[in-house]
Amino acid sequence: MKNCLLHKKLCNHFIPLQSELIEAHGYVAETHQICTEDGYYLTVHRVLSSNDRVSSPLNADINTDAAVTDNKSSDSIDNSSASPNCHRILETLECCTSPGSKLPVIINHGILSSSADWVLLGPDKALPYVLCNNGFDVWLMNARGNTYSKSHKYYLTKDKEFWNFSWHEIGYYDLPATIDYILEKTGHSKLYYIGYSQGAAAFYVMGSERPEYNAKIKGMISLAPAVFLGNQRSPLLKLIVHFQSVIDWGSYICNMYECLPRSKWQSRVLRTFVCNAPHTVMKGFCTCWFFSHRWFR
Questions:
Q1: 10 Å Cβ neighbour count for 214?
Q2: If residue 89 lies in a helix (H) or strand (E), which one and from where to where?
Q3: Residues 279, 182: contact at Cβ < 8 Å?
Q4: How distant is the alpha carbon of residue 270 from its chain centre?
Q5: 63, 31 in Cβ contact below 8 A?
């Protein structure tokens, strides 16, 4: 009972942040919870155009936010401002405009990220919106442990067992559970998959460890895939390796296993730094942060 109440509390606290952002951009947001074989609760955000606001059988057993702040029709949106990368992805996929034939597309984020990253650019630019405007049923995945998927049947986030996973478990458990859920709810037998960095690596894990799921994939697009770490050139990672035993010891002593945890104290420090730091310092900080994924190449 305690874990069920905790799961509900976490969902109510975190989920509206993403759905409200999607709705503020003029789209319909649905929030779905999926439980994996090993007990993790995953949150998946579905992006629909305002034309798809009519209730469907999906709404019977999920927690859904379907308010729309802008009733702009997706058919009237001009995609000419979309990035060249979005256009190349659209050329790879088979567009379908009939509501009944909308093919599902899973978009999976990279390491230390979440589904929110995909919609920050806003309408006409963000990949989920471009795909939605072109007739696809878009599902934004959240891997275990990120902001929207911090709940488990038996463990709390302060437990070491909760964080005992890598992209191997994400590919072996999270992806199959998400794929099965979406195919069951939409009635399709196949779907598209787009993975960035860790999201692509997790897909390769699933494809090799659970090959039966390959038949459920109509097409897969890898964006900056991370597959082999042996040749990575990140000075930061090379430095951390030498202190791995110290980091493990510190995590055990402090009982803190989450990477970049969120707390009121940390938020206050970060806010003070952002508001008062010189422009040059902030520019360097933002550059290092937003391009941190390059360190894993």
A1: 11
A2: helix 84-92
A3: no
A4: 23
A5: yes
Give the pairing of strands 151-152 and 40-48: antiparallel
**Residue 108: its H or E element:** strand 104-108
Together in a domain, 163 and 252: no
Same domain, 203 and 271: no
210 and 292 fall within a common domain: no
Angle, CA 117 vertex, CA 20 and CA 111 arms, to 5°:
135
Quote the pTM value. 0.72
Name the token pair of 178.
């998400």
Q: 221 or 102: whose pLDDT is higher?
A: 221
Could you tell me the CATH number of the domain that includes residue 15? 3.40.50.1820
CA distance 70 to 66: 12
Show Cβ contacts of residue 10 under 8 Å, excluding neighbours closer than 6 positions. Answer: 150, 151
Nearest CA among 64, 40, 42, 43 for reference residue 54: 64
**Which of 25-39, 100-114, 135-149, 248-262 comes out lowest in average pLDDT?**
248-262
Average of per-residue pLDDT across 76-87: 59
Same domain as 150, residue 216: yes
What is the span of the domain harbouring residue 167?
2-227
Considering its fold, how many domains does the chain have in total? 2
Measured N-to-C along each axis, helices 235-242 and 244-254 cross at an angle, to the nearest 10 degrees, of: 70
Cβ atoms < 10 Å from Cβ of 211: 9
